[in-house]
Amino acid sequence: MKTQVPEKYIIAFKKKYGEDADLNELEKIYKRSLVTPGEAVGVIAAQSIGEASTQLTLRTKHAAGLSVINTTTGLPRLVEIFDAKKDIPTPFIDIYLNSEYSKSKEKASAFANKIIEIKIEDITTSYTVSPRKKEIVFVIDKDVLKEYGFTMKEIISHLSRMKISTSVEGDKLLVVDKSASDVKKLIRLRNKIVNVNISGVPGISRAILNQDKEGNYWIKTIGTNLAEILKMEEVDVSKTVSNDIIEVSKVLGIEAARNLIIEEVRGTLENVGLTVDNRHIFLIADAMCLDGTVRGIGRYGLSGEAESVLARASFEVPFKHLIEAGLYHESDPFKYVANNIVSNQVIPVGTGEVKLVVKENGKGNNEESSGEDKKQ
């Protein structure tokens, strides 16, 4: 994200150095002024976000205007983000449509119905397993089958890739697996069959149609499959986004994941009326995405991978880190805050960062030399 120099500084710079003044030089000066050399930016960022997070609630809530969807908010959402969890409890996508579909309720509604995943379990009322016959009998709800517009032949065709024998008797779907030697294998087969996708986008269990202030229709889903959704011609790919940070990093890249971390943290805090300086959030997002993958801040992420043995040990499971360091002959560089605190040394931030200060002319800064300077 490019740093923008405030307009007032540009005006003052041009006033002093002329209209042709080098604004690149101004940008360098401005960037140097943002942070004092040696400032403990990591500690300040952690304190700033940590202080605000103590005021967050420990709950999920209904999404605004969508009483049928629960979304994780407050402190649990921050934990999800900073731990970089791969499986979040309430994944969703906000799907924005191209103008042809966003202006028409009928087309938008048809698209919402199109993307909902329909599995065999959605049209099944019950099942029975017969180990003796090596057979599973699924009772199909024909009314639901008709409502979705499917036929029994289509259901059988979806099972054709599996090494099983299928047949239909009235409203029953009979599946025989001659290789099944016991009831456990039949149960595993049953679990596999009920999760077979008949139509829709895998992972999208519900889709709710909504309308914004401008009258445009958009869709919020329960479940996520961003890669498949972005392939659809009805979707505006420039606006559509998932709340699953790991998925976004895989589909759109690390820069998109970094931006999502920033937006999600900022949005979570703003939902409860809290404001944290963007630079603190940027710093944490940059650290999480530094090596091209999204890493959490914890024992299995940034803290657990620190170069310093004592820094790792000061976070969690100290004995494990100290024993492993001894086994592998690790050394500690003492370049960080945590390990210097543990060893009772001056931390390398602020005034502790400064090693030696001298005058530019090379003379000392004592009273005697000052007096000589005055005489001269």
UniProtKB/TrEMBL annotation:
<dbReference type="Pfam" id="PF04998">
    <property type="entry name" value="RNA_pol_Rpb1_5"/>
</dbReference>
<dbReference type="GO" id="GO:0003899">
    <property type="term" value="F:DNA-directed RNA polymerase activity"/>
</dbReference>
<dbReference type="InterPro" id="IPR007081">
    <property type="entry name" value="RNA_pol_Rpb1_5"/>
</dbReference>
<keyword id="KW-0240">DNA-directed RNA polymerase</keyword>
<feature type="domain" description="RNA polymerase Rpb1">
    <location>
        <begin position="13"/>
        <end position="308"/>
    </location>
</feature>
<keyword id="KW-0548">Nucleotidyltransferase</keyword>
<keyword id="KW-0804">Transcription</keyword>
<dbReference type="GO" id="GO:0000428">
    <property type="term" value="C:DNA-directed RNA polymerase complex"/>
</dbReference>
<dbReference type="GO" id="GO:0006351">
    <property type="term" value="P:DNA-templated transcription"/>
</dbReference>
<dbReference type="InterPro" id="IPR045867">
    <property type="entry name" value="DNA-dir_RpoC_beta_prime"/>
</dbReference>
<keyword id="KW-0808">Transferase</keyword>
<dbReference type="GO" id="GO:0003677">
    <property type="term" value="F:DNA binding"/>
</dbReference>
<protein>
    <recommendedName>
        <fullName>DNA-directed RNA polymerase</fullName>
        <ecNumber>2.7.7.6</ecNumber>
    </recommendedName>
</protein>
